[in-house]
Amino acid sequence: MKYCCLLGLLWLAGCTQNKEMNTTHLYAEPYRPQVHFSPKKSWMNDPNGMVYLNNVWHLFFQYYPDSTVWGPMHWGHATSKDLVHWTEQPVALYPDSIGYIFSGSIVADLNNSSRFGKDGQVPLVALFTQHDPKGEKQGRVDFQNQSIAYSVDEGKTWTKYSRNPVLKNPGSKDFRDPKIMWYEKGKKWIMTLATKDRVSFYTSTDLTQWSKASEFGESLGAHGGVWECPDLFSMNDQGKTIWVLLVSINPGGPQGGSATQYFTGDFDGTRFTTSQTETKWIDQGTDNYAGITWSNTGSRKIFLGWMSNWQYAQAVPTIQWRSAMTIPRELTIAQINGAYYLQSFPVKELAAIEENGITENNLTRADKKLQGPAKLRFVLRAIENFSVTLLNTKGEKWIAGYDKNTDQYYIDRTASGNINFEKGFARKIFSKRISTDSVMDITLLIDDASIEFFADKGTNTLTSIFFPNEKYSTVKIEGGNQFRIDSLAFTPLKSIWIKNSVSEK
Q1: Which residue from 173, 326, 338, 424 has the fewest beta carbons nearer than 10 Å?
Q2: Predicted local distance difference test score (pLDDT) of residue 47
Q3: Residue 54 CA to chain centroid, in angstroms?
Q4: Distance between CA atoms of 409 and 412, rounded to whole angstroms?
């Protein structure tokens, strides 16, 4: 009997060790992000239901657990105590007879207006689109409707509302992606909903009964594709309230494929208005889509996007999983030449994985070894041409830089490595400089298969993924005869998967 028990204990220990080894191997596979969230396996796209409650950051996301390409949508779930290290939780929402679980949002119903709360527990209320594939196949236009689920155990388990859907489709082929916010001045909930080529606003006092209030955007902004994943929130500029509306679009992005535009203006509880005439993008790169902000965060506005592009997302050369999220970004707002612009930078919590780095001053060029993810920041006292190049021993390279003649930043991944999986992936893209400052302050967040490029005090950001056949091992900064780096900081970053906290099922 003791012998059998001993064998059992050894077997359990071996299984535990194998799980740890498998997980460790999983997060060391080619192209696996080391400082960005990616699911342990399978397909992921839009971030959904992002909410902060009791010191826990919840990230839900579009997820298909049975494949690495898009399929019947579920809501995956991950949690974090610091916005950096993530624990993947069991799938939160599954498709049902009403349809797949498309994008949506979650709020903490602090006043229990929904009456879903029990025993003093704050209910989390999710509002999401249910997509009926049978109705779509039949040629109906009302195959997308809005439904509710709620949790009274801080997101661990979910109950779907017995009277779903709570908002039925009035006859629009595209009727989806509800984002909810509490409008304190009017003591009501606001739903911002994507409706084909515009945004529709709905109001409610209890999260279950909704009335249409207004529409926005039929003749404003970019219209190269369907509008998706809107988000409405307010920001403060020196005591003045500025309202911001995010709207993703696919296709029709500035670099092709999908991207996220934004509007600044005013919201009176019923209508959103703007004097903005130009189209503004929260990220000018190729790989930041469907981003929204966390709810229940007070004055902080933390944004997260899907780090891919519908143009090639299902073809990228990863094996166990597809897609990652951007780094969570802190949003602020600033006026430049009389117009409001969003600013974004990696959240301050990222400092938790910073290692000892180096700082240098007064350089004419820089050449650093890459041994993993890193943050690179450099300041130029004069506006000059520059290039930042990532290299490996195979001669593959990814390049970003600035062209003074055209006053544009650029990213070039035409020689970045594995580029043949989609014909439009390997291009050189451009973004006009926004800042009027005489100083250039550039930050790059470098991961194994992505870079997030921040310029113009965060008003100009470009996110780019890449797939080298060997990890990049060198980063170089160069310029012309007048080029000089006033200061440079190179900071290695620890992998967030060193002590992997992904749940095993």
Answers
A1: 338
A2: 98
A3: 22
A4: 10
Give the integer Cα–Cα distance in Å for 164 and 463.
38
346 sits in which H/E element: strand 339-346
Q: Check: CB of residue 399 under 8 Å from CB of residue 389.
A: yes
Cβ atoms of 460 and 439 within 8 Å: the answer is no
Q: Tokens 């490996």 map to which residue?
A: 392
Q: Could you count the other beta carbons within 10 Å of the beta carbon of residue 139?
A: 7
The tokens for 107 are 């709020």
Structure tokens at 284: 């000018």
Identify the sign of the CA torsion 50, 51, 57, 63: negative
96 a catalytic residue: no
DSSP labels for 112-123?
Answer: -TTS---TTPPP
Provide the pairing of β-strand 42-53 with 56-64: antiparallel
Q: What pLDDT score does 503 carry?
A: 39
In sequence order, which ranges of 202-330 are alpha helices (DSSP H)? none
How many CB atoms lie under 10 A from the CB of residue 356?
A: 6
Q: What is the mean pLDDT of residues 338-355?
A: 97
- Distance, in Å, from the CA atom of 441 to the CA atom of 449, rounded to the nearest integer, reads 23
DSSP 157-216: S-EE-TT--SB---S-S--EEEEEEEEGGGTEEEEEEEETTEEEEEEESSSSS-EEEEEE
φ/ψ of 2, rounded to 5, equals -60, -40
Give the residue from 296, 348, 309 showing the smallest Cα distance to 327. 348
Q: Exposure pattern of 47-82 as b/e (b: 16+ CB <10 Å)?
A: bbbbbbbeeebbbbbbbbbeebeeeebbbbbbbbee
Question: Token digits for 268?
Answer: 């009176």
**Is-above-0.70 flag for pTM?**
yes
* Residue 23 binned pLDDT confidence (cut-offs 50, 70, 90): low
Q: What is the token pair recorded at 65? A: 């657990």
Dist CA 48 CA 291 (whole Å): 9
Q: What is the mean pLDDT of the chain?
A: 94
Summarised one tens digit per residue, pLDDT across range 87-141 is: 999 999 999 999 999 999 999 999 999 999 999 999 999 999 999 999 999 999 9
Please write the tens of the pLDDT for every residue from 76-87: 999 999 999 999
* Contacts with 114 (C-beta within 8 Å, 6 or more apart), sequence order: 123, 125, 150, 206, 207, 208
Q: What is the mean pLDDT of residues 397-405?
A: 98
Choice among 46, 132, 231, 283 that is catalytic: 46
